[in-house]
Specification:
By secondary structure, the chain is an alpha+beta fold. The longest helix has 19 residues.
């Protein structure tokens, strides 16, 4: 059975929403859904213990994408590399997955804007933006 990108995006969001609800709140280093609001991201940033991690410094952020085929992810990865991202993994299989990384200083507002931008570029390549994670 073939799945469209929108079907995959819906499935990914459903899984992430379920995980989010199961956790009760976003925890540090958790995968953050691209649909997280600024208020939700603010709560996540506020939940990080000050002594453990200083979010006022740049960190490695990883962004995941899925697509019905690896060719879409290869093209997407080339575009993101041109924008300063690094390829972490590109896996084939039933659901090809791409994980990219970039060192950034994010606030809830900049992360919302980044999520919107990555969602738009992923869709332009026939892929879906799945989540982001900060490497603490």
């Amino acid at each position: 059975m073939r799945y469209s990108v929108s079907m995959q995006r819906t499935q990914v969001r459903a899984v992430l929403a379920g995980l989010w609800l199961a956790m009760g709140s976003i925890a540090p280093a958790a995968a953050l859904p691209p649909s997280a609001t600024r208020a939700e991201l603010q709560r996540w940033f506020d939940s990080i213990p000050d002594g453990r991690v200083v979010m006022a410094t740049p960190h490695d952020w990883q962004y995941s994408f899925v697509a019905p085929n690896g060719r879409a992810l290869e093209a997407l990865s080339a575009a993101l590399v041109r924008d300063g991202y690094r390829i972490v993994t590109l896996e084939g299989g039933a659901t090809p997955t791409l994980r990219m990384a970039k060192t950034d200083l994010h606030s809830p507002l900049t992360l919302v804007k980044r999520n919107q931008s990555l969602d738009k570029i992923a869709r332009s390549y026939g892929a879906a933006y799945a989540d982001c994670t900060v490497v603490l």
